[in-house]
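Two records follow; treat each independently.
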Amino acid sequence: MSAGISEQRPWLQSEQTIIVSGYGAFVVNNLIEEGHPDRIIDVMTVGPVHSPPRGVEKIVWKDKENRFYSAWARGDMVSVSMVPVMSTGANAVFVNGYSKADGWEVTGLDWDTGRTVSRTIFGQNNKGNGAYAILQFLESCDMLFNSVVGPYRIPMR
């Protein structure tokens, strides 16, 4: 079992929904060390200007022990503000984050292992900032990305 993100810091905060599938639950850390007091400005600057929050974790309920345990944790993952989503068809959970090297991206993580299975890189343009939107996948498997500049369709083939 891996060490959870709660074991890496004294406490964390998640402002996003918890993804639940079967006995597993996926959470993201949204606690930032610095930011802007205006939430609109904050969502535009966390990542490019202010250090983004780090850490995601899948916990699993162990029924016989009546407790949760960490199935896997990724302290390197960033989920700035977009609501994470799970695709049961792809067996993956997706987050929108930012890194200095690649800019904005949507990263897909394998539900069972936490291994990175997909990366859609938008670059430094704020077009890749999801800003509290909900990521959606269409029947064609294309991504409907609801950016701060409006929604657009991304072919995933």
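The next record belongs to a different protein.
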Amino acid sequence: MKFSIIGTGFIFPAHVQAIRDAGGEIRDIVNDVHGQDIWKSIVKNTDADCIVILTPNDLHFDMAMFSAGNDKIVLCEKPLVIKSEHAKVLAEKPNIFTVLQLKYHPLVEEIRKAISGRQKNEIEMSIFFKRGEDYANGWKGDKKRSGGFLFNLGIHYFDLLLYLFGDVKKIETKMIKEKIVNGLTDAEARGTIEGENYICNWIIGINKKNNGEIIKKREFIINGEFYNFSSKDSLAEENLHKFVYQDLLVKKGITPLEALKSIELIERLYDSYKK
């Protein structure tokens, strides 16, 4: 399969490596240095089969729509979009997929086996990140562009929660804050999510400290068992993108309809706290 990549930011090297690992061929690479709309010319004229979108979150919808309209397969980094109404529009198009690679983590099958047949599951979700000045000062620190840190960073974990345990029946958002302090993002959110067979108490934070050290962990505690998904700076370092591309080669992957579930949940979390 041949690929054209739009965007050369932080996550770009992980995609290049995953494409190479999958035996794919990169035909074009473009970013805004080449001009704001040069990507449209690339999409129209490339012989690539798939357009890979690695741009700021607020650009995803228009780029995915345009690429699909030019009969391309689309692979878009998470979040696919930051409005559920846009996800519903994309769901009507064929061959659009998004990157939520945590579903391919080896722990997922282990958890599935552990919860099989249980009528009630108790979950503690503790997700903490360390992020520097580039995060705060770039588009990721601008809520209008990123959708907020629950979209930009939290979506992996809410998506996984729904994937493993099913739909949401009730939510309570107890706190959401996101601001910049001394050039760094200071963010924290917490709440409770309940489904038919589970209750999840969750907390997500950026640059939160314990004993003077910034906490870095992505941990689920499920029925008393600990599952650490990563203690690295970025989930990209877990080398899970290769599985995304392996599925893509056979036109499989996470569709807009599937991605819609976590997008709608995050919207509800933000909206409920406003009220």
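Discussion point: The first helix runs from residue 12 to 21. How would you locate this feature using only the token line?
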